[in-house]
Amino acid sequence: MSGKHIIKLIVTILIVAMSVSYLVPLEDQDFGDYLRKNSEAPELLEILERAEARLAEDSEIASLYMAVKAIAKEDRIDISEYFPQLILESSIQNVDKRNQLVLNELYTGSKAKLRKGLDIEGGISVTFQADPAEFANASDFERRDKLSKAIEIIEQRVNTYGVSEPVVRKSGEYRIEVQLAGVSTTENPDLIDTIGKPARLEFREVHRSIDARVNPNTPIGYERLVKVNDDGNQIYEDPHYVKRIPGLLGKNVTNAQARPEQLGSYYYVSIDFDSDGKQQFADLTSTLAPRNSQERGGQLAIVLDGKLQSAPVVNEPITGGSAQITGNFSRREAESLANVLNNPLDIRLEVAELYEVGPTLARDSIDSGVKAALIGASAVALFMLIYFMVGGLVALISVVLNITIVLGTLAAFNATLTLPGIAGIILTVGMAVDANILIFERIREELRNGKNLKAALVGGFDKVFSTIFDANVTTLIVSLAMYTFGTGPVKGFGLTLAIGVVVTMFCALVVSRLLMELLIESDIMKKFTTLSILNNPKIDFLQWRKVVFAISWCVVLMGVVGVYMKRDSIFGIDFTGGDEVTVNFVERIDESDIRSVVVDNDLGEVNPQYFEPVGGGIEVLKLQTAFKKGKEVVTALQLAYPTAQFTVEGESQIGPSVGSEIQLNALKAIGISLALILLYIAIRFEIGYGVGAVVATIHDILLTIGIFVLFGHQFTAPMVAAILLIVGYSLNDTIVLFDRIREELQLRPTTKLYSVINIAVNAVLSRSLLTSITTLLAAGSLMIFGTGVINDIAFTFTIGIITGTFSSIFIASPVFYFWHKGDRRSVESSHDVVPEYEWQAATKESE
Fold first, then answer.
1. What is the pTM of this model?
2. CA dist., res. 299 & res. 301, Å (int)
3. If DSSP codes are grouped into helix, strand and coil, which group holds residue 224?
4. How many CB atoms are located within 10 Å of the residue 90 CB?
5. pLDDT tens digit string along 131-166?
6. Side-chain half-sphere exposure of 639, counting CA atoms within 13 A
7. Omega of the bond prior to 420 within 30 degrees of 0, cis?
8. How many helices and strands (H and E) does the chain possess?
9. 375-406, pLDDT tens digit by residue?
């Protein structure tokens, strides 16, 4: 084995080992067992025994975590002493703060590294209630506008905590429902308060001459506010008389950031003001600054939600437009404060309900999806082994390592695995299989040209490099645009896809090549044997370009018209909102059985979810239905399951979980990514290729949506990911063909553009069919064996596979041909550098 191979092997092993380490543990561990495993201190074991006893006896204690925390607080026990391996910030002297940080770290460590999303595993649901009195003098429009703004701000706050794809929507007239996955009120008890905190920031003057510590009489126009100080040993109060009317409000803050103090012993929050705020802050500090060297500067009170945070002395006017909020904050406290300051709420919200919820995806959909995925993966593996034999085994090893590295990287990013994320992984697997098929088909070409196996391997990888590079870079552009400009499921899909693209290139160009080289050099593989579905086809595809192009766009037009005609019925509850009925019961009925009753009675869409109050209580069933269908659904269930004794506890209307912002950002992300792809291809290839790729992608999106709607399906939140999946697949397929056209133009300097395109299409036809077969095996199994939304996604992706393969040949290529009016000289003149062909290089050498 050569030194180059050893280095590649070591790098691969290290990357895979690191990925596996991030994935372990695969399942959540019992919190008590985890503590015992990480500390053998007898005192800790005693605390755990007491905590377990209290948890069993006290119904108000929700978890072992809370019981341990309560005992440590009561007995002033420093938990960090039992876990010296955990390094805390040196400034944190307060025992309660230290215990909070230590227990949070331990709780996180006890959980599976790759968290599952709300749609797969459930999470917590909190409903915030706004005080109707705040809207007493507001119109309906103003009330709806304020609630919409509050929903937007809460989404921004939640995203700061790394929560993937939260559900934030209006519930009733004055309520906002928030569903979160991957977080826990046990792990982060202040999270709910932070999410709903108004964050009203004010800068006020402190009375210059009257000391609130000694003078009990509050001056007119002032109020007594108390700053609570904690030096680690004792807590004491520091009162001030603060002017009631603020000199500057937090609405003028443009940015707030948590920053460490120079020595890193504590954190503070730095804030920057807009232009009006800068001037007001300068005026305010000028008023407080000393007028001469003998005078002491006044104090500036920084008040947040009516509580005095700090009262620094102003020694000189501050004209830079920035300030600091200090208070010996831990990093977590400073980051939380900065987060709410960046997203201040105009209305005060109180927690009305707090539940643990089941997955938004029905259990039967999840189970059937897992089963279908296993069947599909097995079918793909079997096909690759039968068709490519030893090469197929190499491809499977590469794909398994690919998935392992992708999942490990997601875990390292603290990402949450959701259905859109799984869709991104499916596309990653498709790209990984496609890359290996490209490599193997190129090796076969080199062997047909008379090269030996080793030379064919080198030539095949060299020629396929640019194809794999361009296909993956264009997909990476899409994923980065989705991650940067998207929100919710769009952002989650973008992150997974971006990771998948990078890993796919590594596994295809490094791992697969390394395995093939080792097999050849060790004489294990003496010949590259595969089956064949096409042998040197010579089909004139372009002769049908006008007819097929016209028919295809007519079908697209029919789909667009169908979407318009059915516009009032094609969107599900995720997009439109609907009724939410809270139901009590005595017998739990499975979600799949509830759905069956609704389907049998033709009552439209229903999303059943079971809610259990945090800390224990009576479980309730919430039924989300289309508008004005809630009571009909309950009646149907009462008739179908009389022993369940369903009774309605309450009914309200809910807003969409896929809000207009997510929809707009999805369109924005797709639009920006297509524009960037056009630019990239114009630079890397030339503009005609870019136009062809963009037109083909738009064609595939519109055609897939049209067929989806014409078959009677409704759009739900996961369908956003399905459409994005098609964008990635379509682009990948088109770039492979265009890369071959570019190569054939260089290899055949005297051949007409018409013939070159046909030669290129025929050259990649075998690869296109093989890739379509493998991806259809996976998508087909999901469509046949999956249920619910899994079936919808599989149906959409199946259409996308067919349209993607079709459009590369009959849309992208003809558009490229039309753009250059059938003249290859137009293609060559578009390049920055005139191409040099092999015969020209040979002529120069002979001269």
1. 0.75
2. 6
3. strand
4. 10
5. 787 777 778 787 877 788 788 777 776 765 545 567
6. 10
7. no
8. 28, 19
9. 888 888 999 999 999 999 999 999 999 999 99
